[in-house]
Design a protein that fits this description.
Immunoglobulin-like, 2 domains, 18-stranded antiparallel barrel, 30 strands, disordered N terminus, globular, Maltoporin, Chain A
Length: 618
């Protein structure tokens, strides 16, 4: 009971601060949004240095990683030099790795535009006589322990070697991992020998794939809930807070970067999601990216609508994708790829979403860029539960949904054509323009608060608003105001022609404004990002105003996404960074450029989602 009450109080205090009217007024004075990614707002800071061996000679081909507000990596050249450009100011954990060398312990370096110190990283060559098996590099060197005299010969398989040479990590020490193994019964040694022989070959194959990789990552321990008003946090109207655990691992190599992420949540809705991807280095002619993900949610509560809509009380979604940006010549790039997703609650089976684009820089001495894009997107109702956010905390499925008309779920299909131009001007000003046309079949409408029950915040209804043909244009302006501060604004205008759907009678009863006629829509989306260097505080705010929201008081209820990340340097160690995160959000969908104009507009009365907790980067 004490733990439950404490959660409510902490969450209520954070929301009261985040939703203070004066704070929102200050944010409204700094509009922004040139991109959907917060990492695009990097300030022009640099970090450079040289990698040397224990004799002072430069080392070429070493992978150097910098982990801070973003993760970047570089490869040292023939003189051992490396450089990171366009970094956001703040602290970064810098490490270097090369197979055959013992890595130096990571150091935290404060990056700012006023300090351009060249850092030296020293690597010591590993003695081959002291290594009995290839080292699986993880950025943290293994604890080399010489065997005691008279110790019997141990198994030299991959698993047994790992147990004897457990690396020192954030969670445990090597001494704790190996202490007392010699005193265990003989059947444990027999078991280790069997396991080692069974998985030895695959483990050695995996080791060769990541032999030149330096492992970085982060762990998030979060608490999340939903509410309509801040005062609801102290009543039973808000959704019960539940914990979320998230871990991410990144292994940069000379040719690209491997990433793996996973999250799990607890409560009446138990869910988890895992994803892995590989991204080629930006300098390559083929900058391809490929990955896959799998998510599952199981509902254990008492909402009859949720139970009726979920087959066997659970849902499973798998997806895979592959995209490539092929630089044909220095000023001409061809992009192509596709995404395939399988939703077990759809009768239509798998959904395929291909995309192709051509980007050209007409003049060699002018930064003007032209781009043409053609795409076909298929998305299922409720897909946002299984697709991690690109600009917010990475959360597993946290809500349930059902059909508003009791009909089977119908996916949304959209054909999108777009022509865009972008140019950078003096004083870090970037101006972009685009014209687009969309044909959407079975446009999804999302309804919150249909029934006045406590489950309304954790359960919503979906339906089909009809088919729509629309065309429009947009213009965006972004600028780096000063070191660590970037703002942008995007204005979009679209004209739409609608045709009805089977769900129209059911939708019109509960949300009449979600049933549309031919109309013109005007939308302004702004964002603002700032990094306060002295306090290592990052603020990101996104604000969306439109006359097309399906709400009676649309003009008075804009959508927003507000995040504050505060570094906790007093908790840092040599290889870790601690941060505190608070995020409040009413935006329901990701505002990507190739999504339907109406995806967010037809979300009716979304609740505010609050996320708070700690992030540990290592």
């Amino acid at each position: 009971m004490i733990r439950f009450f404490t959660r409510w109080c902490v969450l209520g205090f954070m929301v009261s601060l985040a939703s203070t009217p004066s704070a929102w007024a200050q944010l409204a004075q700094h509009p922004n949004f040139a991109s959907t990614s917060a990492s695009d707002a990097a300030a022009p800071c640099q970090l450079h240095g040289v990698v040397r061996d224990d004799h002072g000679q430069p080392i070429a081909g070493a992978v150097v990683s910098a982990l801070g507000s973003t993760t970047v990596f570089a490869v040292s050249d023939a003189q051992g030099r490396f450089a990171f450009r366009s970094l956001s100011p703040g602290p970064y954990l810098v490490r270097a790795h090369l197979q055959g060398y013992l890595p130096e312990r990571g150091r935290i370096i404060q990056v700012s535009a006023t300090e351009q110190t060249a850092w030296t990283i020293a690597l010591t060559r590993r003695d081959p006589d002291k290594t009995s098996a290839p080292v699986v590099a993880a950025g943290l060197g293994p604890t080399e322990t010489a065997p005691a005299p008279g110790t019997p010969e141990d198994d030299h398989g991959e698993v047994a070697w790992r147990l004897r040479h457990a690396p020192r990590s954030v969670l445990k020490s090597a001494e704790q991992a190996v202490a007392g193994l010699e005193d265990q019964p003989s059947f444990i040694e027999d078991s280790l020998t069997s396991i080692s022989r069974a998985v030895g070959t695959p483990a050695r194959l995996a080791s060769s794939l990541f032999a030149d990789a330096s492992l970085n990552g982060q762990i998030n321990l979060l608490t999340t809930t939903s509410f309509d008003r801040p005062q609801d946090l102290f009543t039973t109207s808000a959704l019960t807070p539940h914990g979320v655990a998230y871990i991410a691992l990144a292994a940069p190599t000379a040719s690209g970067e491997w990433t793996m992420r996973g999250g799990i949540t607890e409560g009446d809705l138990a869910s988890w999601i895992v994803a892995g991807a590989y991204r080629r280095a930006e300098t390559a002619d083929h900058r391809y990216e490929a990955g896959l993900s799998y998510a599952m949610q199981r509902y254990l509560g008492g909402n009859a609508d949720a139970l009726a809509a979920m087959r066997d009380g659970s849902r499973n979604v798998g997806a895979m994708y592959a995209y490539d940006n092929w630089k044909l010549v220095p000023r001409l790039t061809l992009g192509y790829g596709t995404r395939y997703a399988k939703y077990d609650y759809l009768a239509d089976g798998g959904l395929v979403s291909p995309r192709a684009s051509v980007m050209v820089q007409p003049l060699a001495d002018d930064p003007l860029t032209l781009k043409a894009t053609v795409s076909h997107r298929e998305i299922a109702p409720g897909a946002e539960e299984f697709v991690p956010s690109a600009i917010g905390p990475w959360l597993p499925p946290e809500r349930t949904f059902s059909s508003v008309s009791r009909r089977p779920f119908v996916p949304e299909r959209m054909d999108h054509v777009e022509f865009a131009a972008e140019r950078e001007w003096p004083n870090d000003v970037v101006i972009g323009m685009r014209v687009f046309r969309q044909r959407v079949d079975d446009q999804i409408v999302t309804l919150f608060g249909v029934r006045e029950t406590r489950a309304a915040l954790g359960h919503y209804y979906v339906g089909t608003a009809g088919d729509v043909d629309l065309h429009g244009w947009s213009v965006s302006v972004s600028r780096t105001l000063r070191e660590g501060v970037r703002a942008s604004i995007d204005y979009t205008q679209a004209s739409a022609r609608w045709s009805g759907s089977w769900d129209e009678p059911a939708i019109s009863r509960v949300a009449p404004l979600a049933v549309r006629d031919d109309e013109h829509v005007h939308d302004v989306t702004a964002s603002f990002e700032a990094v306060v260097t002295p306090t290592s505080t990052r603020v990101f705010a996104l604000y969306k105003v439109s006359d097309g929201f399906a709400s009676p008081d649309a003009a008075a209820t804009p959508r927003f996404d507000f995040q504050v990340s505060q570094a906790l340097p007093f908790l840092n160690s040599t290889n870790t960074q601690w941060e505190m995160l608070v995020a409040v959000r009413t935006l329901f969908r990701e505002d990507s450029l190739d999504s339907s104009v109406y995806d967010e507009l037809l979300v009716v009365h979304p609740p505010k989602r609050l996320v708070g907790g700690l992030t540990v980067r290592f």
